[in-house]
Amino acid sequence: MAQKLLNRAVRIILTGWAAATFVFIMLRLAGDPVAALIPNDLPQDIIDTYRARFGLDQSLFQQYLNYLWALLRGDFGYSFRTSEPALDLVTARLPATLILTGTALLVAVATGVPAGIAAALNRDTVIDRALMGFSVFGFAMPNFFFGILMILLFTLNLRWLPSSGFDTAASLIMPALTLGLAASGAYARMTRSALLEVLGLPFMETARAKGLRFRRVLVVHALRAILIPLVTLLGFSIGAMISGAIVTETVFGWPGIGRLLVVSVSERDLAVVQLIVVLSAVAMAFSNAVIDTALGILDPRIGSARRNVQ
Q1: pTM for the model
Q2: How far is CA 92 from CA 88, 89, 95, 96, 204, in A?
Q3: Do 96 and 168 share a structural domain?
Q4: Are the C-beta atoms of 278 and 16 separated by less than 8 Å?
Q5: What are the beta bridge partners of residue 85?
Q6: 200 and 96, same domain (yes or no)
Q7: Domain co-membership, 8 together with 128
Q8: Domain containing residue 168
């Protein structure tokens, strides 16, 4: 058990290092951030002062070493725009993003799993085709387009919901639905295919032959058997939620780290962009480690098989 935890911790650290290295290289290749912050007609000594202030007057290799050492010390740098610590800016926006992604994940599971169950129990009927059609539509619809349609309908025409902000619970409805319904299609299709496969297995026939009610067979045996693919999908959907939140927060003016990332990229705010990318990569690696542990608990054969491979 200790060896497993150590391996997963090493993977999380390596993922964070790889993300930090990637974002450092890409941001430096994009050009000099000082040129995007100050006018070109300023005296050269002022430009040099700005570059020295943020350590941009050193070689790229030295900047990289300083950057990694600062990360190890918990120093994430300062914003070019506001001169505030990048960590303070990100943590101030983090609760809004967690609320949005958490609610959207609940929407995805609460709508996708029942839809998949209903489709599987009504296989090859109008209900099945309608539910799968809606799931494909929700999955294929781009977040920004679906969000704009919701604003046009519920804000401009019906005037039921606010189009932006984080003031009331009503402000959460449209962003959460936009992000959650896009993921619900994957849950519906996964639930349908997994349930159809389980319903045809021999142990299901045995349970029915014993005279058990179909509802008990469905809940106790079938739904329990499809937990593994659903938990696996949960790990993938967390990454999709993080990336989808960037677009959704921008469309609805949601004050989360996704919107902060868009603003920071446009203004070349290196410290903030680097911190958000690294935190997102570490969060995804950590969530995958948790999902991997949960799969081993649900089915010990998975853990033993992975140990044999290693």
Answers
A1: 0.82
A2: 6, 5, 7, 8, 51
A3: yes
A4: yes
A5: 78
A6: yes
A7: no
A8: 90-309
Reading the block at residue 66, the tokens are 């300083």
Q: 95 and 13, same structural domain?
A: no
- Whether 58 and 144 map to the same domain: the answer is no
Q: What is the pLDDT of residue 310?
A: 47
Residues 301, 139: Cα–Cα separation, whole Å = 32
Extract the residue ranges of the chain whose pLDDT is less than 50. 304-310
User: Is 85 a member of any domain?
Assistant: no
- Cα(first)–Cα(last) distance of the chain, in Å? 14
Would you state the pLDDT for residue 209? Answer: 66
Looking at the fold, whether 54 and 129 belong to one and the same domain comes out as no
Query: Which pLDDT value is given to residue 204?
Result: 66
For 167-197, how does the pLDDT look when each residue is reduced to its tens digit (9 = 90+)?
788 889 999 999 998 888 889 998 888 888 8
Q: CA geometry: angle at 96 spanning 30 and 287, to 5°? A: 75
How distant is the alpha carbon of residue 149 from its chain centre? 23
**pLDDT score at 300:** 58
CA–CA gap between residue 288 and residue 8 (Å, rounded): 9
In a domain, 280, yes or no: yes
